[in-house]
Design goal:
The complex is a heterodimer of chains A (393) and B (181). In chain A, the strands form three sheets. In chain A, strands 1-2-3 form a three-stranded antiparallel beta sheet. Chain A is mostly helical and 393 residues long. The model of chain A has no long low-confidence stretch (mean pLDDT 88). Chain B has four helices and seven strands, in the order H-E-E-H-E-E-E-E-H-E-H. The chains are: A mainly alpha (393), B alpha/beta (181). At the A-B interface, helix 1, helix 8, strand 6, strand 7 and strand 8 of A face strand 3, strand 4, helix 3 and helix 4 of B.
Chain lengths: 393, 181
């Protein structure tokens, strides 16, 4: 038989491709169905948030950073407020920390549900999307109850929270927590032993623990390779050291292992939420008592001169932050979210840099995908759970 | 582990390097001279007492009009030692920093972003292109002397008009080029 002459084909995947989770462009070089090389191109969603933040006062940056990783909005703002509080050397009351932990864990559940729905949808389990979005809707309702805003609540503020919890908060959270574990069973029942799902995910996109660390993929991706690193465990913040939870890890490092890690994380989230909601009293402290940052209560503003001046200063000039720099990491839904802030001692930040876990995941993508099949590219992108708003900022 | 302990551990591995302890409120900060950065990185990565195997962030800060103007900031993580470390490298307007990609592969895109945003050149970087801004962008937006809002004429392109003969010729040209490779 005469030797077949073959040639490779270059294919553009994205920037408008339904499986790339936003505007990610991949230039694939294909040899038949095998991916010979992959070149990601990013930046389509770059909005210059870091530059804009330098023009805002410290408190005004909170809604901006929430728009970076729009699925894990409140883990962004948690990292930001913690870093500013570190420079200001503020300590939060116990109740504020507990509420922050609860909200951050609910946000993680919401983000994982979007990941689960879209990831399963892309590899053929279409109905998962509707089941996952149905549950996420309940968390969006809780956000709306707390802050009047479903997607970007901006409920965390430097110095505490925006206001106290609303009436009916405990009932809404408890109703969700009672309902959700059964739904996780349902999700796992649909996917865990699903033959098509397992064939599409097992042994696909394998990454070793050393590679994961070399590419900076600290988070669920590294935990799927057996690295038990979790910021909540290694560098606890907001009182995570007082909660009883496990850090799920798997050994295989493939797409299925990443799925298993995130599903087990959902259960751990519920566990943390239950402990947090039990500690939170319906009313109580919702901010620290530092007069530099937290405005006085309204009844004092109307009756006391000093309180009025303090209120006026905080809302017109903002507060100043001592000069210096700080990096505070939190465990976001996609891995280590960190904020590096530099202050020059004025009422506006000098520099803000967000560590974007999605950027690292996309950078490592060629390494995971090359040599595999083109159909696996979709499965791997889904398993890395990238958000382009986070990547491009 | 504080900055002094780390510098003491580094001293025999990188002889003659002039390290400097930086002010910090969270974890150790060390100023590294640019010419010893890669050696320092190898030592931090390999030494059993340090084991900073993950580079979690590379960024820069523009302290305009101070001189030297920029500080490139590296955040390192050692999981076995539960330790974080911040390295800083001072670099001037026309200076450059060696790439640390040989030590931590994750530095590749992060250094591209720093070049894109600040115009700091990383010597030896194999692919120093813009990462977030369009490739034909002028200037480096995160510099303090770069305006926040600028008016630029909208960039337009000629509509793509191509005859069928040209299209086929292009196709043939690409094919012969690929076959030649």
């Amino acid at each position: 038989m005469a030797e077949l002459r073959t040639e490779t084909m270059t294919v553009n995947m994205g920037p408008q491709h339904p499986s790339t989770h936003g505007v990610l462009r991949l230039v694939l070089e294909l040899d038949g169905e095998v991916v010979r090389s992959l070149r990601p191109t990013i930046g389509y969603l770059h909005t210059g948030i870091e530059k804009t933040a330098e023009q805002k006062k410290w408190q005004q940056v909170v809604p901006l950073v929430e728009r970076m990783d729009y699925l894990g909005a409140q883990s962004n703002s948690l990292a930001y407020v913690l870093s500013v509080e570190k420079l200001l050397d503020l300590a939060m009351p116990r109740r504020v920390n507990d509420i922050r932990v609860l909200i951050a864990e609910l946000q993680r559940i919401a983000s994982h549900l979007i990941w689960l729905g879209t990831h399963a949808l892309e590899i053929g389990a279409v109905s998962m999307l509707f089941y996952a979005f149905r549950e996420r809707e309940l968390i969006m309702n809780i956000n709306e109850l707390v802050a009047g805003f479903r997607f970007f609540p901006s409920y965390f503020r430097v110095g505490g929270l925006r206001e106290d919890l609303p009436r009916g908060f405990h009932e809404a959270v408890n109703a969700f927590l009672d309902r959700f574990p059964g739904k996780i069973d349902e999700f796992e029942g649909l996917l865990n032993k699903n033959d098509i799902f397992m064939r599409r995910t097992q042994g696909v996109g394998i990454l070793s623990a050393d590679e994961a660390l070399a590419w900076g993929l600290v988070g669920p991706i590294a935990r799927a390779c057996g690295v038990d690193y979790d910021v909540r465990r290694y560098f606890p913040y907001s009182g995570y050291e007082t909660y009883d939870f496990e850090v799920p890890t798997e050994r295989e490092g493939d797409v299925y292992a990443r799925y298993r890690v995130r599903m087990r994380e959902l259960r751990e989230c519920v566990k943390i939420c239950r402990q947090a909601i039990a500690r939170i009293t319906p009313t109580g402290a919702w901010a620290c008592d530092d007069p530099r940052v937290v405005p006085p209560p309204k009844d004092k503003v109307y009756t006391e001169m000093e309180a009025l001046i303090q209120h006026f200063l905080i809302y017109s000039q903002g507060f100043t932050v001592p000069a210096g720099d700080a990096y505070v990491p939190v465990e976001g839904p996609r891995g280590e979210h960190g904020v590096y802030i530099v202050s020059d001692g004025t009422n506006r930040p000098w520099r803000i840099k967000m560590r974007a876990p999605s950027l690292f995941a996309i950078q490592a993508l060629p390494n995971i995908v090359q040599g595999g099949l083109i159909a696996d590219v979709v499965a791997v992108i889904g398993s890395t759970d990238v958000v382009m708003g986070d990547c491009d900022r | 582990m504080d900055s002094h302990t780390i510098i003491t551990a580094l001293a025999p591995l990188v002889p003659g390097a002039a390290y400097e302890v930086g002010a910090s409120i969270d974890f150790p900060v060390i100023y590294v001279p640019a010419d010893r950065l890669v050696q320092t990185g190898v030592a931090l990565h390999e030494a059993p007492s340090l084991r900073f195997t993950a580079l979690v962030e590379v960024t820069a800060t523009d302290y305009f009009p101070r001189d030297p103007r920029f500080e490139v900031v590296y955040h390192l993580l050692s999981i076995p030692n539960r330790q974080r470390l911040r390295l800083k490298v001072r670099v001037g307007e026309s200076g450059s920093v060696p790439t640390v990609q040989s030590v931590w592969p994750s530095a590749g895109w992060l250094e591209r972003e720093v070049w894109d945003m600040f115009g700091i050149v990383f010597d030896g970087h194999p692919d120093l292109r813009r990462l977030l801004m369009p490739e034909d962008w002028e200037g480096h937006p995160q510099r303090k002397d770069y305006p926040v809002q600028i008016r630029k004429a909208a960039q337009t392109y000629e509509p793509l008009e191509i005859s069928e003969e040209e299209f086929k010729a292009n196709l043939q040209r690409d094919r012969t080029r690929r076959m030649a490779q």
